[in-house]
Write a structure and sequence with these properties.
single chain, mainly beta, Immunoglobulin-like, six-stranded antiparallel beta barrel, five-stranded mixed sheet, 0% helix
């Protein structure tokens, strides 16, 4: 059992300040005023809603205003405290904050607080989902998730969803600029009509959840990049596959359980659990429409002890493999779980009421160097006065430890980051080659019979693609130089480019080999640039950590980014030459403005 990541998610509960005994006759409560401007032209936005949400202040306080024709707003009689500032307007998203909300501190007698808030036009993803033979398919759920946005730092504009209409069309609006992965999910168990199959039930096909541009595996999915105010259209088809039945009985169920359910969870971060079902007579169960793959079964027990409900999850033995036939006659038995114990401490030995914390183990899956959420039900424990906690009967597996707080006392706590877990880069001034990257295959050209690399990229990435641009081709056995030979017409939101080879291929490389191609679009001279941070997109605002104090700490800074390449990005504002910033994912520290590095 592994506990690879600790994420501090502090839930800040406002405190009610004591009222002054002798208030002056005139109203001395502070006010907040300012403007809401559109990026990048600084035009005022009218009818924008500005709201203050308590971070540390009156629990029932509700403050809001609407901007006038000049984009101005004013909120009077604001009680002292700390607030998050939320700006909303149809067709716009708040910008300039990265993935952190703007906060404001209102002090007693502080007078007027001036704010300048920025918004960008929201991005839109539209398209059409097709069935197995190219016809539009309705009632398909389509979701867009910003890459790297899973976790406590995710905002409502980092993801979106829609359902296709009778023409197979969908529209997902209100998105931040960024890179998104798109998934189309058909109604569970839906089968292709008109597909010639045998009458044997085990050979029946169903539609599968499919990722753009038409793949099943998360690793093969291609992220599309959308820009502020832009609408991107993509079309792709649903894949089909065989589905099977998994059935059997569960024995040895504890008799004290008032309810027992079984769930079947696909292994891997992309796996979704089958809908839980109550055990039947003698512990029988049956799951239908199960796709080939590796699964784990869990037993959910709900008991009542002392009149209070308690939920417990138990493992049901080794993984279940589904290949090309039904899996029947399983006999599963609950197995004893493990125990997880731990203790919290503060770096400097300060005192803290640890009972204000809760600890939760979230099932996760290891994906290379990363640990991703793996679905399932968390195991939750309170924390004792001395900072210790214990969780019993935890099923074997890999977990993330998520910590929640019910008080504001950790607001000013500076977390520590292990320098071995991050990578950094220095801001430079000079020339940057803007590149795009795509995957493809070595094929024989139809007109000459010569080997070429046929690479597929999203159409928006190849808008500036031209013949004769330089290309580097990674054959996995060596790098080969080439140039763009031709760019084919776009189809379903994708563009194919043929890459001519300018050097001999490594030994053993032949037609049919998968390759990775990087195309040089243009050379930008005398600009500030840096390595591309994990969530950074072109022409956007980002919140990055800049190293200070000889690298022993990092502080959060707002940065405006410009043109982007595969591994580098232009810096327009917020950093200077020689600054060093953290490029790796820091979303676990969204509540921190400063971190220590050790």
């Amino acid at each position: 059992m592994h506990l690879p990541i600790i994420i501090f998610a502090l839930i800040l509960v406002p405190n009610v300040p004591a009222m002054q005994a002798n208030l002056p006759e005139q109203d001395s409560t502070p006010s907040i005023q300012g403007k809401v401007l559109q990026e990048p032209n600084a035009q005022p936005i009218r009818k924008a809603s500005v709201a203050l949400r308590g971070r540390k202040g009156p629990a029932d306080a509700k403050y809001s205003a609407v901007t006038d024709a000049e984009g101005q707003f004013r909120i009077d009689h604001v009680e002292p405290g700390q607030y998050y500032v939320v700006v909303e307007h149809p067709g716009f998203v708040q910008s300039g904050t990265g993935r952190r909300p703007i906060s404001v501190s209102v002090q007693p007698g502080g007078g007027k607080n001036e704010l300048i808030l920025h918004m960008q036009l929201a991005a839109v993803i539209t398209g059409k989902i097709l069935d197995w033979d190219g016809d539009p398919m309705g009632n398909v759920g389509v979701s867009a998730t910003r890459t790297g946005s899973v976790g406590p730092g995710r905002t409502t504009h980092d993801f979106g969803s829609a359902v296709t209409n009778d023409l197979g069309e969908f529209r997902i609006s209100g998105l931040q600029a960024g890179r998104y992965k798109i998934t189309a999910t058909p109604p569970q168990g839906s089968r292709p009509s008109g597909l010639q199959e045998t009458s044997n039930e085990k050979n029946q096909s169903i539609y599968l959840a499919t990722r753009y541009p038409g793949v099943l595996d998360e690793d093969q999915a291609v992220a599309v990049e959308i820009h502020a105010g832009a609408e991107l259209r993509i079309n792709f088809g649903l894949l089909t596959g065989r589905a099977y039945r998994v059935s059997g009985t569960v024995t040895g169920v504890p008799s004290k359980g008032s309810m027992a359910q079984i769930i079947l969870q696909a292994k891997g971060s992309a796996g979704s659990p089958m809908a839980p079902q109550e055990l039947g007579e003698s512990g029988r169960f049956e799951f239908t429409n199960v796709l080939p793959g590796s699964y784990v079964a869990r037993l959910i027990m709900v008991t009542f002890e002392g009149g209070q409900p308690a939920m417990q999850m138990l493992g049901l033995g080794p993984s279940i493999e589904v290949s090309n036939t039904h899996v029947e006659g399983l006999r599963l038995q609950p197995e004893a779980g493990g125990q997880v114990r731990g203790k919290f401490r503060l770096d400097a030995g300060q005192k803290f009421d640890w009972t204000q914390l809760t600890a939760a183990l979230i099932p996760a899956e290891e994906q290379g160097a990363e640990v991703m959420w793996g679905g399932g039900i968390p195991t939750i424990s309170g924390v004792n006065l001395d900072g210790t906690f214990e969780m019993k009967n935890v099923p074997g597996g890999t977990y993330q430890l998520l910590v929640g707080a019910r008080s504001d006392h950790l607001r000013d706590y500076i977390p520590t980051v292990d320098k071995a877990t991050i990578w950094t880069d220095t801001v430079k001034r000079g020339s940057m080659v803007r590149q795009v990257r795509g995957l493809g295959t070595l094929v024989r050209a139809e007109d000459s019979g010569n080997l070429v690399a046929r690479v597929t990229l999203p159409a928006y990435m190849m808008k500036e693609g031209q013949p004769n641009q330089n290309v580097t081709i990674d054959t996995r056995k060596g790098l080969v130089k080439g140039h763009v030979l031709r760019i084919n017409a776009s189809s379903s939101g994708a563009t194919a480019a043929d890459i001519a080879l300018d050097a001999p291929l490594p030994e053993g490389v032949n037609a049919g080999l998968a390759v990775d191609a990087t195309i040089d679009i243009e050379k930008l001279d005398n600009i500030l640039y840096v390595g591309r941070p994990i969530h950074a997109t072109a022409n956007s605002a980002a919140s990055l950590f800049k190293l200070v104090n000889d690298g022993s700490e990092a502080v959060r800074v707002s940065v405006k980014l410009g043109r982007a390449s595969v591994n580098t990005i232009e810096v327009l504002d917020g950093l200077k030459e020689g600054d060093k910033v953290i490029l790796s994912d820091m979303s676990s520290y969204d509540n921190a403005d400063r971190v220590k590095i050790k």
